[in-house]
Amino acid sequence: MTEAAMLDVAVLLSIGRHPVSGRARRAATDAQALEMALALRPKRLTAIHAGPAADAEALRDYLGMGLKRLTLLVLPEGSDPVEPVIAHLRRLAPSLVLTGRQAENGEGSGMLPYLIARGLEAAVVADVVRIGPSDAPASSVSMTGLVQALPRGQRRALTVTGRLIATVHPSAPPARASAFGPARRGVIEPMAEPGTVEATADLFLSECEHRPWRPKPKLMRVKRGGSALDRLKAATESKSGKGQLLVNPTPEAGALAIYDSLVEQGMLP
């Protein structure tokens, strides 16, 4: 990343949920995005969260990572944060915006970075694992060098010019632990939504049904063809194993039985 791009960085943060207890906490990939931003040591680092004022206490986990202050765009419960966040970023005009891959709470569609990039007319790169100095020759245009995660552990080096929205991959460097002292000393600055932008209700989320997750039932393999009685037996009867019962066998007899079973299953010639 060039010096011009390192001067101004914004990070979008959300509230996560513990997978077991359901307790509000920092989101995993958002914390990794903040860790990546802190490692860049920008001249101005702005952390932003859009949501109800009640989210303030859970946001202190981010302050414990070393942030001095965090901006809270106060929105009504169930509001769509896209337009207020776009309006706030237009005023800040950061060169680089980092965010997590997907929210752990709410709709969790992963579309927020793309909608913001469209509103800001900025480039968007998904699954970033590293941001560093660009290898391209110096120029007057802001250039960002980054590494993108690909399937099967592959990596791809990219150079992007202009304003950039980047989402962080879970394989990026882990986030540092949150310290209690800095978390309490950090300042959360509530900010009402801009007068020119009105937060609208998230109609899709309001129509969704919220319920605890449970594993999907496994489909039964039913034998096709044959009579109705044969299909019913195939669906209901439990097949007994094809093992051989040995009671107090000698070591030689047990070894021979194991060898015969492996041969029968095709594991040995």
Write out key terms for the chains shown:
269 residues; alpha/beta; nine-stranded mixed β-sheet
Fold and architecture overview:
- The chain is of the alpha/beta class and 269 residues long.
- Helix content is 28%, strand content 24%.
- Strands 9-8-7-10-6-1-4-5-11 form a 9-stranded mixed sheet.
- Strand 2 and strand 3 form a beta hairpin.
- The longest helix has 14 residues.
- The radius of gyration is 27 Å and the shape is elongated.
- The N terminus is likely disordered.
Summarize the structure.
By secondary structure, the protein is of the alpha/beta class. Helices cover 28% and strands 24% of the residues.
Shape: elongated
How many H/I helical runs? 9
Largest sheet: 9 strands, mixed
Question: How many E-type strands?
Answer: 11
Task: Determine the mean pLDDT.
Answer: 83
The stretches of 5 or more residues where confidence is low (pLDDT under 50) are: 1-5
- End-to-end gap: 59 Å
The chain-level structural class is: alpha/beta
Beta-strand residue percentage: 15-25%
- Please list the strands of the largest sheet in the order they lie side by side: 9-8-7-10-6-1-4-5-11
Helix coverage percent: 25-40%
Order of helices and strands: HEEEHEHEHEHEEEEHEHHH
Radius of gyration: 27 Å
